[in-house]
Amino acid sequence: MSDQASAPEFIDRVGIATLFPASLEVPNLFHAYLGDPDAHTDSGHDTPSGEVYGWRWYLGRREAAFYSAVVRNRPTWVSWPLLPSILRLVGELRAPDELYDLGEISDHAHRIAGVLENAGGTLSTGELRREAGFPTGKENRAAYLKAVAELDSRMLLAKVFSTTDHDMRHTLVSVRYAKAVEQAEALSRESALDALLMTYLPQAVYAVPLVLGKHLGVPEIELHAGLDRLVAVGSVRAVDGDGPKGASYVWARESW
User: DSSP secondary-structure letter at 28?
Assistant: First the structure.
């Protein structure tokens, strides 16, 4: 990947990629740009790290891909074709009101979701904090961040980028990406997993269910079942693993 302009094609090809290194199992834009899987990030502005950090606005303003906390709750890009599958496997498809009634999300998280829904799905951080009742102050900021993280962890929120400033906006996935949610609801978990693996494996070449499942939030046993389906049709071969990571699978289609 030579520059930010080539990043959308990279994301489309791999299906899911973090901005910076978050998992050895998932590609990231920083290492793809430098061509060095051992390169370290830093906090500089005039460094490769600072350059890749700025790509968020280039990609986000062009809506090159879906952007939210996915892989290990780190900033992650998901290609639009793969989004319904990721939502089905990792996201929460039930409405925030239902989750709140069942006691599965907090009052603060429910309040934020309700404000976003009433606002048409998208607000800046300042607007969202004000409308949801989290005024300035250290204690209120901590409560707000905790509630946002709660919604992020269920893929109920995503981030979008303004064309007029450098502030990110929070958006309610069920409102802004209603079509993808509808498609996700129509998928079985098996077909969603098949779509993920058939996008992921040709690029990754191998998969370790124990680690990949943990970092994506997909049950290990479910990954094993999906990979075994691909073994049965000759797309993948299983490799016995005696180490702590257990068995792995290798992409076997040389013609891909």
Answer: B
